[in-house]
Amino acid sequence: MGARVKVYKDPGGLVVGPQYIVNGRDFTANTLSYDVYNDVIVDPTGQGIADAQAKVLRLAPSSEAEARKNKSLPLRFWKFRARGWRTEAKTLALMKDMLTTAGPQEILGGLDKALKKGATTAARKKIWNQIKYAMVADGAADLYYKYMKPHKKKLLEWKAP
After folding, report:
1. Tens-level pLDDT at each residue, the chain (161 residues)
2. Which residues fall within 8 angstroms of residue 117, CB to CB, at 6 or more apart?
3. Nearest to residue 15, comparing CAs of 58, 54, 37, 48?
4. CA 154 to chain centre
5. Is-contact 3 42, C-beta < 8 A?
6. How much is the pTM?
């Protein structure tokens, strides 16, 4: 790509530049942006480029309380995991906890979003199985069977409009 990398951090480690990029983003790799005027990739966390290159899921440095507001985040996390992204223990523990504290409607909404609302039944089944196997690989099989499997039939049904 040939772009220079511009990292906005002060010596104390606080993000100082485009903080708005970090707010509302889930993982460090998703905080990256491209500054077309200066021809640079902006990495406000200082970890996003390395995490994207290494395919590591790490929560963006917004507060844990902010992350907990995104009820579909655990399912999005396991979709990334199914695609071969690695994670750190802290992020994995938070995703497991978030799934256990979400209500049934939040789980259904998150799953429907993760399964790409409007996708064909075959596509939804494929994504479902990817999430399931990623959860099992992460030692979260108990969470899958308790919180997700009861909703499987309803979520995988697809009717053409």
Report:
1. 444 555 555 445 544 455 545 666 788 898 888 878 778 888 888 889 999 999 999 988 776 777 888 878 888 899 899 999 999 999 999 999 988 887 767 776 777 777 766 677 788 788 888 989 999 999 999 998 988 888 777 776 655 44
2. none
3. 48
4. 23
5. no
6. 0.76
